[in-house]
């Protein structure tokens, strides 16, 4: 489940609603919960800043593994992030996956990160290396080690999924990360291409390709599409107003493969698996979606979608 929280409404009530949905997700076979972040200068319908703070709050309220989808690396100094992610991994008892992407260039000026004069890609890869080396040093100690305390719950720290919509991003994820992460607004053709590039570069090594998708399930597919057209409008307009719903050759019209009947959604998930995707985070409660609609989607996924996938 992907958790939708935004700055256009008070935070604590949103988190409380999300926690209740996480209970439903866990009871219906979902395997993890993911939260993104943004650093907006005005209220927006999704993503809060400082996602690690929110996940630290949720760590004591759900048993689900937690993930960031994604942290914006330019907002962080690497050593500080090593401390904070290690602490969160302790709080959620080793259940953290750290998703990272570069973020916009202005983040360094606004919130204090930076690329130290190097190219963004070079700096980002080095940041991932610093995190991994710091966490490994925390586990091993020894001369020259620069550990953090407390260390991560797991030796070597949490796995890191790296995002970005370019081929270079997929290759970076394959070479220095543990997985590749594709955002909601990466159309399926873009996702398929990046997944193929990731697995080609990964060779025989294990890995992961994760993606976030808007999802609404109803017994009748037409009802699902009608509801999604209304309830998802605010989030979709956020992307399309910025020409940010992206295909291989630029902005495209949004498509919603995970909106429909349980059979429709199961078929779409099988399609993702065949294209190299290993996990899908379902955005069931974007801004404007009634909690009961989101809850029913979670229940139908558990009752009718996951069993069909198990059988296939």
Over all CA atoms, what is the radius of gyration?
19 Å
Count the beta strands: 13
Protein structure class: alpha/beta
Count of domains: 1
Fold-level CATH name: TIM Barrel
SSE ordering: EHEHEEHEHHEHEHEEHHEEEHEH
CATH-level-4 superfamily name: Luciferase-like domain
- % residues in beta strands: 5-15%
Helix content: 40-55%
N-to-C span: 22 Å
Main beta sheet: 9 strands, parallel
CATH architecture: Alpha-Beta Barrel
Instruction: Catalogue the unreliable spans.
Output: none
Average pLDDT taken over every residue: 95
Characterise the protein shown here.
- With about 300 residues, the protein is α/β, with parallel strands linked by helices.
- Helices cover about 45% and strands about 15% of the residues.
- The protein has eleven helices and 13 strands.
- Strands 1, 2, 3, 4, 5, 6, 7, 8 and 13 form a nine-stranded parallel beta sheet that branches. A two-stranded parallel sheet has the order 9-12.
- Helix 1 packs parallel to helix 11, helix 2 packs parallel to helix 3 (about 80-90) and helix 10 (about 260-275) packs across helix 11 (about 290-310).
- This is LLM class flavin-dependent oxidoreductase.
- Keywords: Oxidoreductase.
- InterPro entries: F420-G6PD/mer, Luciferase-like_dom, Luciferase-like_sf.
- It comes from Actinoallomurus oryzae.
């Amino acid at each position: 489940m992907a958790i939708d929280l935004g700055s256009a409404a008070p935070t604590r009530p949103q988190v409380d609603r999300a926690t209740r949905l996480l209970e439903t997700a866990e009871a219906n076979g979902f395997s993890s919960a993911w939260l993104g972040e943004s650093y907006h200068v005005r209220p927006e319908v999704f993503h809060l800043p400082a996602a690690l703070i929110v996940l630290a709050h949720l760590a004591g309220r759900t048993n689900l593994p937690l993930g960031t989808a994604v942290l914006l690396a330019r907002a962080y100094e690497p050593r500080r992030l090593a401390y904070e992610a290690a602490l969160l991994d302790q709080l959620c008892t080793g259940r953290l996956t750290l998703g990272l992407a570069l973020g916009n260039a202005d983040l360094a000026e606004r919130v204090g990160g930076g690329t130290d004069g190097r190219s963004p890609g070079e700096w980002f890869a080095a940041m991932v290396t610093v995190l991994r080396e710091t966490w490994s040093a925390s586990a091993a100690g020894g001369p020259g080690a620069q550990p953090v305390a407390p260390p991560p719950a797991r030796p070597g720290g949490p796995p890191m999924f790296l995002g970005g919509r370019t081929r270079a991003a997929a290759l970076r994820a394959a070479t220095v990360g543990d997985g590749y992460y594709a955002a909601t607004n990466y159309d399926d053709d873009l996702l398929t291409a990046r997944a193929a590039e990731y697995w080609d570069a990964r060779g025989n090594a294990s890995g992961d390709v994760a993606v976030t998708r808007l999802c609404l399930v109803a017994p009748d597919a037409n009802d699902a599409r009608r509801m999604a057209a209304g309830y998802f409008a605010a989030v979709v307009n956020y992307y399309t107003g910025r020409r940010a719903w992206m295909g291989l050759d630029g902005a495209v019209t949004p498509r919603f493969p995970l909106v429909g009947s349980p059979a429709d959604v199961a078929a779409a998930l099988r399609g993702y698996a065949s294209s190299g995707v290993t996990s899908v985070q379902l955005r069931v409660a974007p801004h404007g979606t009634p909690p009961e609609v989101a809850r029913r989607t979670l229940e139908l996924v558990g009752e009718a979608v996951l069993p069909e996938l198990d059988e296939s």
